[in-house]
Amino acid sequence: MNALPHGNSAQQPGLTPAQQPGLTLAQQSLHPSAAELGLWPRAGQAERVCADAPAGYAHCLALVRTDIHGLLAPDIPAGYSPADLRTAYDLTKYSSSKGSGETVAVVDAYDDPDAASDLAIYRRAYGLRPCTSANHCYTKKAFTLQGNSSWGEEESVDLDMVSAICPNCKILLVEAANNDIGSLASAEKYATAHADYVSNSWSGDEGSRTYDGDFNVSGVAITAATGDNGYNRTAQWPAILPSVTAVGGTTLSSFKPRIESAWSYAGSGCSTIYAKPSFQHDLDTGCSDRAEADTSADADPNTGVAVYDTDGESGWLVFGGTSVAAPIIASVFALGGNRADNNDTHLYAHKSSLNDVKSGQNGSCGKPLCTAGPGWDGPTGLGTPKGIAAF
Known about the structure:
Layout: E1 46-48, E2 59-60, E3 63-65, E4 71-73, E5 76-77, H1 82-88, H2 92-97, E6 103-109, H3 115-125, E7 138-142, H4 149-165, E8 170-176, H5 181-194, E9 197-200, E10 202-205, E11 221-225, E12 231-232, E13 236-237, E14 245-255, E15 258-262, E16 268-275, E17 289-292, E18 295-298, E19 305-309, E20 315-320, H6 322-336, H7 343-349, E21 354-355, E22 384-385
Parallel strand pairs: 6-8, 6-9, 7-8, 9-11, 11-14, 12-16, 14-18
Antiparallel strand pairs: 1-3, 2-10, 3-20, 4-5, 10-13, 14-15, 16-17, 19-20, 21-22
């Protein structure tokens, strides 16, 4: 895949953007997905939604395809559908029967005024039950009314991925006042006080430990994306925290059967601040201290997911990035009902219950920090969900 600077775009020949209003879609459960029709995945161009951020600030980690907009065929959005993802990760029966009473929070920055309406269109299109403020399924806590279309696209990714994996879960959207780390930490405190599962699809460089405690909350499973720049000499925070489940990324080349490799841009890293946690002591991570990732899910834009958004662009879009994987994993924790004091301890103790991703690499630092192989590796951690036993 080509490099992904902010603003890079190119048109892929052979696709006609069919910008039909999402509300005209019939329930997707009555139609095959693009993947089932053999129309997905496909390679193409993508760009970063958020620009890099200076020290003390975070950037979101969504990547949007610039060559695919709208529908590939009547009623068929491009990208993997909820059913595709649930099939790939052996979650179908759990997604239908579990999650009631659980709340998954997603923490982002700035206000997306279209978040609720976009979420409604996505869920209606895929035959998922409504999740609205009226039925007490969807709640939004906004610390600002200031909008930012880039972060608005990220919010759509997060809300749609929670819906895809745990359609019975309640969703809490927490919008920080801005992308300052302190503001995001304040939003995190609100999220952990009101939800047992919290997803963070953003990152900054590790350094200051000022806000570490806001991401270490007993009984709350916190996930964070490891970044989209491949191996990072400076580990990404908050994913690098031992109290957080660091979520890397894969290329999901086929959902049935599942064919998966390490995504070449999935973040991995070795901390220079945080000691090696007990759950990694017996592993060769190529790092004497805390290493990331712990687990992973689909993140490659070439094998990306369908999302509905009108705040940034308009309509049906395809997204990738570890920002896709982080809410997927938070939602699998919710399906598992795991409220342990350290969810990573449970995850590492049940590593045999994950799909071990054994091929692909995200850099030239070799095994295991950059190159996937049997067991733990930097880009994919212990692997991807295989049901809920590890979660």
